[in-house]
Amino acid sequence: MNNILITGASSGYGHEIARHFHQQGWNVVATMRKPQPGLLPESERLRVLPLEVTDAASIAACVAAAGPIDVLVNNAGVGMAGALEVAPLSEIRRIFETNTFGVMAMIQAVLPQMRERRSGVVVNVTSSATLGAFPFSAPYTASKMAIEGLSMALVPELAPFGLEVKLVEPGLGLGTRFAQNSAFDFAAQVPPAYRAHATAVFSTRPAVTTSESDVADAVWRAVHDTTGQLRFPAGADALELWERQSR
C-alpha cells in the first residue's frame, strides 16, 4: 500500500501531507483546484492533478487519471466565521458543498476500487472544533461534525471489505493559508449585540497552535494504525481538547 491521493494540496496541511508522504517513498497524487508548477518537488512519484471536489465531472476525471488509490486523504476545506444569526444560508450551503458533500463525493468515487481490492484507508481531516465549543464557528463546525458522524458510521459499514476510515482533527493553525483564507469582515459578520463577546473570543489565542507538520504526522500515524483507533488529534491544543473530552 503506497499510493495516496490528497485533496487540497496547494498549500497548508495538504501541501505538507503530500511532501511528507513523498519523502517517505510513497507515490503521491496531490490535487488542487488550479495546479501551479513548482509548488511541490518534481518527481516520478509525485503527480499534481486538477480537482474541484464540488464538481462530479472533475472528480471522475481526477480519479480515473490517478489510477490505483490505496489511501484517500480528504483535506480540502473552506472556513467560515461569524455569528450564525446573520450568516447567509447561501454561504453556509457553500461551506457544506466543500467540507461535507465534497468529502462524501470523493469517498464514493474511490470506494469501488478499494472494495474490489479489499484494501484501503480513507482519512478525513476535520477540526478540533468537533472536540470543543468554538463560538462564532457554528456552520463550519456543523460541516465538520457531519464528517465525524459519517466516518463513525462508515467504520463498521466498510470493515467487512477490509477498509479503514480515520479522522484527523487539527487544532488551530494561525499561520496556515487556511486560517488566512478564513478571515472575515468583523463588522459585517458580527452584529452589534454580539460585538463585546466576539471581541473577547477572537482576542484570545492559544499559546501553542497546530503546525502543518503536526497534521502530516497525524495523517501518517492514522494511515499506519493497526489498533482500530478512529480519532487522531493533531497539535497540542487539539490533543488537550481530545483528552479533556475523553475524561
| The named CATH superfamily | NAD(P)-binding Rossmann-like Domain
CATH topology descriptor? Rossmann fold
Name the overall outline: globular
Question: Which regions contain 5 or more consecutive residues with pLDDT less than 50?
Answer: 175-183
Total helices: the number is: 9
Describe, in plain words, how this protein is organized in 3D.
- The protein has a single domain (3-246), classed as NAD(P)-binding Rossmann-like Domain (Rossmann fold, 3-Layer(aba) Sandwich).
- It has nine helices and seven strands; from the N terminus they run βαββαβαβαβααααβα.
- The chain has helices at 12-23, 56-66, 89-117, 138-158, 177-181, 186-189, 195-202, 212-224, 236-246, and strands spanning 3-6, 27-32, 46-50, 71-74, 120-125, 163-170, 231-234.
- Helix 2 (56-66) runs parallel beside helix 3 and helix 3 (89-117) packs parallel to helix 4 (138-158).
- The chain starts with a strand and ends with a helix.
Question: Could you provide a short overview of the structure?
Answer:
By secondary structure, the protein is α/β, with parallel strands linked by helices. 46% of the residues lie in helices and 15% in strands. It has a seven-stranded parallel β-sheet, sandwiched between helices.
